[in-house]
Design a protein that fits this description.
The chain has a 7-stranded mixed beta sheet with strand order 3-2-1-4-6-5-7, sandwiched between helices. Helix content is 36%, strand content 17%. It has 8 helices and 7 strands. Helix 5 runs parallel beside helix 8. The chain is globular. It has one domain: Spore Coat Polysaccharide Biosynthesis Protein SpsA, Chain A (Alpha-Beta Complex). It is α/β, with parallel strands linked by helices and 246 residues long.
Length: 246
């Protein structure tokens, strides 16, 4: 499906922020994102994607967007999941670069500038959560899942779950999307022969709201998704047109 260019074309960098039942974080999110936009390396905007929230997140998003000319939103009719929210943000982005950050603010929007310094030379620049502030149980789950994914995808990525990434939009729009895709973004960029760089970023404990991840979608489901990725990798079509007269 083709999407018509919109106001994001007036910016070089768009930040996609999936939101699902994060009303307690919305005020802090507004402050942190608006502060970052004021000193972003590139002219930047924010695209909130309200993933069918059942609390007052949608109301807060509209209020925030009414106060800031560089804030926009997409509103899902019903919950579709994190991968769908990221895909929607990319579909509606017409900036040169597109980024992604979680609404829980466990990563810092200011660290986007660390990634943006290198994005002209890489298809993707992504964070590695330094000194993670999660529980020991979450860390163990993540370590197991990351190790298995690296073995299955051979992507060489240390922390694919870090919710701070910047991608050249031309690459992002060619990513084949499916449920669970967000765990494989680096590998899916590499399928296009794109280079991925990893940079250490700050990490904080969640101070409001509830995590949307459980043992199933943090550990068991990604195991199954790895096999889907392996199947797709063997059948992925990759081409470049040298010349045409269209």
């Amino acid at each position: 499906m083709q999407y018509s260019p919109n106001r994001t074309k007036d910016y070089q960098f768009s930040i996609v922020v999936p939101v699902y039942n994060e009303e307690e974080n919305m005020s802090a999110l507004e402050n942190r994102l608006s502060n970052f936009l004021s000193h972003s390396i590139y002219p930047a905007c924010v695209i909130f994607v309200n993933d069918g929230s059942k609390d007052e997140s949608g109301w807060y998003i509209r209020e925030i967007c009414s106060r800031h000319k560089d804030f926009f939103y997409l509103d899902f009719e019903q919950n579709a999941g994190l991968s769908a929210a990221i895909k929607a943000g990319i579909d509606y982005c017409f900036s040169d670069y597109v980024g992604y950050i979680d609404a829980d603010l466990q990563t810092d929007p200011d660290d986007f500038n660390l990634l943006l310094k290198d994005i002209p030379d890489y298809a993707m620049v992504m964070g590695i959560r330094a000194n993670r502030k999660d529980s020991l149980f979450k860390k163990i789950q993540s370590k197991i899942a990351n190790g298995f994914r690296r073995m299955m995808t051979n992507d060489g990525v240390e922390d694919t779950g870090c919710p701070l990434k910047v991608i050249q939009t031309s690459y992002a729009k060619r990513v084949p999307f499916f449920n669970g895709m967000h765990r494989f973004l680096p590998a899916l960029i590499q399928l296009q022969k794109g280079e991925v760089k990893q940079i250490a970023v700050r990490h904080y404990p969640r101070v409001a709201g509830q995590s949307k991840f459980s043992l199933w979608n943090r550990l068991l489901s990604p195991f199954l998704d790895c096999f889907a990725y392996r199947w797709m990798k063997k059948r992925y079509i990759n081409y470049k047109v040298g010349e045409n007269n269209l």
